[in-house]
Design brief:
Distance between the termini: 33 Å
Helix content: 40-55%
Number of domains: 2
Strand content: 15-25%
Number of strands: 12
CATH superfamily of the largest domain: Glycogen Phosphorylase B
Order of helices and strands: HEHEHEHEEHEHEHEHEHEHEEHHH
CATH topology of the largest domain: Rossmann fold
Amino acid sequence: MAPWIQLLKELEKRGVQNSVLCREGGTLSQELAKSGIDVFTYTPPAQWLPVFTSGIGKIVDRAKPDLIHTRLSSAAYLGGYWGRKKNIPVISTFDKYPKAKYYENSDVLIGCSSAVTAHIKKLKLPRARLIATILNPVLSKYYTRDWSARQKCRQSLGVKPGECVVLGMGRLVGWKAWDDFLRAIALIPERGGYHFWLVGSGNEEKKLKNLSAKLGIQNRIRFFPFAADVRPWLWAADLFVQSSKEPEGFSLMLIEAMAAGAVPIATNIGGTLDIVKDGVNGLLFSPSDIRTLSAAILRANHEEARASMALNAQRSAADINVGRISEETVDIYNKTLQLKR
């Protein structure tokens, strides 16, 4: 939410007047209002039946937009219907790999990564006149490593100077493949000065804890619950593992870890390939290749190599900033308006 709101404010500086339509309740409308952004709220009675969402049509009439820009499948489905009905071009951003039916009325399609854009092209949507890739913006400065907080967190959890913290963080669900992370840990020699942490919650938690016991690593991996503020964990970490076996659209968690100075070790699929360059700002491995994952952890624990990749990771994260993304977004808006003519 925070990077997106900052993007809206940056777009304002470039002459874009934003009005946001979101559901009633929740914190989004409150935060948008605090930021001085026009907000309309509406909860559709049947979000998969646009004809029964006349409230959206009335809001569109009040806002009188030149363009409609949607995110998420339901918004694209509803926004596309009303955009076509009101003869307003619709731009839809894809954050994942959804089905085509939600985007049949979208005129311009934006993938949040090269992998997502490739997925969009395969859908062959009939009304799409322009397809582009624009990465999601990141508030990299918000994650800049706090050395004092890093030391405090590490000391409180028994990490000695010179030891290496390897962090996994996210939902504990099957496709995240945290079981591969645990199996890779089992291949790493015990006398290496490593601390393995897994932060998050989900329906796989009990299964993963049982697996750690079965692998004999229950004393080497520490599980921690969901963290509302991820920064202290990222600051404390030296390496950040993302073991997903299904493609990520664009992993904000991965780029946040990089901004915090942790070296990413991630699967070589999906949007990760737009972020991590193997051996430059992180290390890549194939899904479920636990031997390569364990070797990458060992490789990244060499101080000189880790320092170089961590610095490059921070630079990469800083490059995906709201200034750059807002410029690319305005360019798409202008091209869309030209298509209308």
